[in-house]
Design a protein that fits this description.
Length: 262
């Protein structure tokens, strides 16, 4: 049976073993907690649990950061940054969704409202929360998604791509309705929505109410079938009012808002 080792020798051995496990942060946690553990009279089990807990927390934080970078968000936005005083009606619904329960239930989120009311901010913030909860996320505008699907379809890889995308717990489609789609593009988008129905979550943002989606997709039947699948298991948040971006520019409204109000 080996004899006792000094603290220095023990930490050297921990460093070696941590490197072998590809967990170098264990060395830092072990050294930092050792003196406190002795002073507080921790058991060996308490000390080991505390060291491993810090390693797991660090790994989770590192993994979340990698997922956030890979998601393609247009910027770093959080719910803490969102001005709920500008959108008070959305506060309780958005904060409830921050728990991420909708992801486990494969539910969708639809954010509707005029330009500048915070749709992309909320979509990004919820997407970042999903990354932090361990889900893989992809963010792109509706136009960019159509470009991606069109290129994949042209290579004869659409079915495989849809299967691959289903491995992402959350896909965010920003700016649905800003530009109309050709019929082929609308059909590709419909396939994306259908492939995720009851399998994985979507967040969509749009400046148009659902009644205007038929014009965007060029076909009322396709639009109706798509909306049916999206909202069957969905939380819809309606954002209202003038553009938050124009609040300090003495511009009270935009054409799309005037049309909505009328």
């Amino acid at each position: 049976m080996p004899g006792p080792t000094t603290s220095v020798e023990a930490l050297k051995q921990i460093t070696h073993l941590a490197a072998a496990l590809k967990a170098p942060r264990i060395t830092q946690a072990a050294a930092r907690l050792a003196e406190h553990a002795r002073d507080a009279g921790w058991t060996f089990e308490d000390y080991l649990a505390a060291v491993l807990e810090r390693e797991v927390s660090a790994r989770n934080a590192s993994g979340a950061e990698l997922r956030i970078r890979a998601a393609g968000f247009p910027g770093r936005k959080t719910l803490d940054d969102f001005d709920f005083d500008h959108q008070p009606a959305a506060r309780s619904q958005a904060l409830a969704l921050a728990s991420g329960a909708y992801l486990a239930e494969h539910r969708n989120i639809v954010l509707l409202g005029p330009p500048g009311t915070g749709k992309t901010h909320l979509a990004t913030a919820l997407g970042i929360r999903a990354c932090q909860a361990g889900y893989r996320v992809l963010f792109a505008t509706a136009t960019d998604w159509i470009t991606r699907l069109t290129e994949t379809h042209a290579r004869g890889r659409l079915a495989a791509e849809l299967v691959r995308l289903r491995r992402y717990g959350l896909i965010i489609v920003d700016e649905v309705g800003y530009l109309p789609f050709e019929q082929d593009a609308a059909n590709l988008f419909f396939q994306l929505v259908s492939s995720r129905y009851e399998h994985a979550s979507l967040i969509l943002t749009s400046n148009l109410p659902f009644s205007g989606w038929g014009a965007v997709f060029g076909d009322q039947i396709v639009a109706a079938a798509m909306i049916d699948r999206i909202v069957h298991h969905a939380d819809v948040i309606a954002l209202k009012g003038a553009s938050y971006r124009l609040r300090d520019r003495e511009i009270d409204t935009l054409p799309s808002i005037r049309a909505e109000q009328s």
